[in-house]
Write a structure and sequence with these properties.
There is one protein chain. This protein has about 425 residues and is α/β, with parallel strands linked by helices. It folds into three domains: about 1-135 and about 300-320, NAD(P)-binding Rossmann-like Domain (Rossmann fold), CATH 3.40.50.720; about 140-295, Dihydrodipicolinate Reductase, domain 2 (2-Layer Sandwich); about 350-430, ACT domain (Alpha-Beta Plaits). It contains 14 helices and 18 strands. It has helices spanning about 15-25, 25-35, 65-70, 85-95, 105-120, 140-145, 160-170, 175-185, 195, 200-215, 235-240, 305-320, 365-375, 405-420; strands spanning about 1-10, 35-45, 60, 75-80, 100, 125, 150-155, 225, 245-255, 260-270, 280-290, 290-300, 345, 350-360, 380-385, 395-400, 405, 430. The strands form two sheets. Strands 7, 8, 9, 10, 11, 12, 13, 14, 15, 16, 17 and 18 form a twelve-stranded mixed sheet that branches. Strand 9 (about 245-255) and strand 10 form a beta hairpin. The radius of gyration is 24 Å and the shape is elongated. The model is unreliable at about 325-330 (pLDDT under 50). The structure holds L-homoserine (HSE). L-homoserine (HSE) binds near residues 161 and 300. L-homoserine binds near residues 159, 160, 161, 201 and 300.
Length: about 425
């Protein structure tokens, strides 16, 4: 039986979930894996507040140093989130001979290159299964299960909060603001839900997937990112009338010699598998050249699913740690190689998609002719036009679907239509994927 000592830094919802599961499943895990996971330290800046788990007070500390410099600690589990002090915790733990498990997608997105390079240098492991898709084992699948595959396409719904909000808007016919309030009341959205609804959280996760799938060390700032706050009830209804659902998708797609990386609300056919992924669930679709199409579905957030992923990393690293020598921490086979010649990221302007366009306009002759004239000027072909019944603020809604065009042409056309002052300023543009 191998005993592995872990130091957990961050005793919030996930931290408490990990501690609770490691305690209650200690003998189960021992039997199943041959590893005895011993919690040596639990560190948090607040060790006074009540948690949903009982722990020995002697292992509680507010000192990060006590954990990362303790020679008995084999694995440091970083669950504080954000960049600071998480980055220092991870880097300094690696420098001090400890492998690391983290759920921190913001950190990996911004500093993954440095972290994995250091882990490679010192021959230690960084486990990050919990960083994308909560309990869904997508990281292990991409790193190990699909080792022989090269990927053309990785995309999915990887933010549960946004998916919950969009699902509620559909099911209850409520506005974005009402659905957001509901998400907050149910504890899904943070009090400051900006990262979730702005698409930022999805972009962080997409950069982790892009690293695994394409070897690209893209920061979230390299990813075109648009959130869901501009989606209205009407857009959902009009899309539904045309046979589409609206989902916040994170997309990594091979396009010629480059990779498209983008996060934005997307119209997908109602028959698409992702159209039925509702509530806080996540789903990730992967297409490999050998394995073909795969779909992963499960809970993308929450203490239990995320703790399940954290513990799988601890056990997986522990299996490779040689505790019989050298202060006990030399793992093998867990490092991640960043491709030496990764493909470039396609400029958003060069991306081609179909579009849903909605604008509000006074109901008078000639408006449509002018709008379609501008679209034609930029070589954008319309596939359908629909003037909706009813008025919004005295204006009529016009919904257009286009054939594929370049993003740059659509942007220029919409700017020109906007400048003509024949439609209201808030032209809605939603990209379409089939
Ligand atoms: N806030 C994230 C979500 C979960 O709503 O999916 C943590 O990554």
């Amino acid at each position: 039986m191998k005993t592995i000592n872990v130091g957990i830094i961050g005793f919030g919802t996930i931290g408490a979930g990990v501690v609770k599961a490691l305690q209650s499943k200690r003998s189960y895990l021992r039997e199943k894996s041959g590893i005895d996971v011993n919690i040596l330290w639990i560190c948090d800046k607040d060790i006074k507040s009540k948690r949903p788990v009982k722990v020995n007070k002697k292992i509680l500390t507010t000192s990060i140093a006590k954990v990362i410099y303790d020679p008995k600690v084999d694995i440091v589990v970083e669950l504080v989130g954000g960049i600071s002090p998480a980055k220092d915790i991870v880097m300094e733990s690696l420098r001090n001979g400890k492998s690391v498990v983290t759920a921190n997608k913001a950190l990996l997105s911004n500093f993954g290159r440095d972290i994995f390079a250091l882990a490679g240098e010192v021959g230690l492991s960084v486990g990050f299964e919990a960083s994308v898709g909560g309990g869904i084992p997508i990281i292990r699948a991409m790193k190990e299960g699909f080792i022989a595959d090269s990927f053309d396409l990785i995309y999915g719904i990887i933010n549960g909060t946004s998916n919950f909000i969009l699902s509620e808007m559909v099911e209850k016919n409520i506005s974005f603001d009402e659905a957001l309030a509901d998400a907050q009341a149910k504890g899904y959205a943070e009090r400051d839900p900006y990262l979730d609804i702005s698409g930022g959280d999805s972009a962080h996760k997409l950069s982790v997937l892009a690293l695994l799938g394409f070897g690209i060390a893209a920061k979230s700032t390299d990813i075109y990112t648009e959130g869901i706050s501009g989606i209205s009830r009407e857009d959902i209804e009009y899309a539904r009338d045309m046979g589409y659902a609206i989902k916040l998708l994170a997309i990594a797609k091979r396009s010629g010699s480059e990779i498209e990386l983008r996060v934005h609300p997307t119209l997908i056919p109602k028959t698409h598998l992702l159209a039925d992924v509702n509530g806080v669930y996540n789903a990730i679709f992967v297409k490999g050249d050998m394995v073909g199409e795969n779909l992963f579905y499960g809970q993308g957030a929450g203490a239990l699913p995320t703790s399940s992923a954290v513990i799988s990393d601890i056990i997986s690293i522990a299996k490779n740690v040689d505790v019989s020598c050298c202060g006990g921490n030399k793992p093998a086979g867990q490092r991640l190689n960043i491709a030496k010649s990764a493909p470039g990221i396609k400029k958003m302007d060069e991306v081609r998609t179909r579009y849903y366009i909605k604008f509000l306009t006074p109901d008078k002759p000639g408006v449509l002719a002018k709008v379609s004239g501008v679209l034609a000027k930029y070589d954008i072909s319309i596939s359908s036009v629909n003037q909706k019944e009813g008025r919004i603020g005295g204006l009529v809604p016009i919904v257009m679907m286009t054939h594929e065009s370049f993003e740059k042409d659509m942007s220029r056309a919409l700017r020109e239509i906007n400048d003509m002052k024949i439609v209201n300023k808030n032209i809605v543009r939603i990209r379409v994927e089939n």
